[in-house]
Amino acid sequence: MNRLCCSSVGFCNFRCFNREPGSLRYIAIVHQWPCFAFSSHKSAIEKWLSQIMTLAMGNSHLLHAILYAGTSYQLFLGCQDQALRPLRMTSYQESLVSLRQTVSHPNATISNALLLSITILALLGSAERPVRVASSTDPMYRDNEFYTGGGWEPAHVNILLSLTKQKGGIKSIEVHDVAEIIGG
Asked: Taking the complete model, does pTM exceed 0.85, yes or no?
C-alpha cells in the first residue's frame, strides 16, 4: 500500500497514508501546514499550527484553502489516491465561494484568515492547473519547490496586495508568519 505520513515536526514523507477521505483532510490540515512555519523548531511549528487552526476553525474560506493546499501537496508528492483530485477541486471552489461571501458582507473586515486564504490561493494558482510532481526527495527542498514553483495566480495576488494595503500594510497583520508570507 502506498502510504504517506508526517514526522513529529510536521514534514511529510512516504511512510504511511490512510486512503479514507476523512484522513486526507486530517493530513492536509494538521500535518502539511507546518511547512509554512518560518522555523523548523518543534515549538515554533506547534505555535504556527495552533494559530492557523484557530483561524481556520472560524473561517470556512481558510479551512477550504488549507484543504486545497494539502490535497495539492499530496498530489505533488505523487500520491495516486482517487479521492484527492475531487477533494482538491471542491476545496478550491468552496474556498472561492466562501471568500466572495466574506468580502461582500456589508460588515466585512480584512482579517488575518482572509489574507492567508487569498495568499494560499495566490501561491498555488487555480485548481484547473495540473499539479507538478516533486523533483526532490529532500523534505526541505521539496517544500520549497512546492510553494515557489506553482506560478502565482495574478487575480489573487492583486486582491491580496489591495486588501493588505487597505488593512494598513504588512505591519498591521497580527500573525507574524502570515505577515512574513505576504511580505516575502
From this structure: no
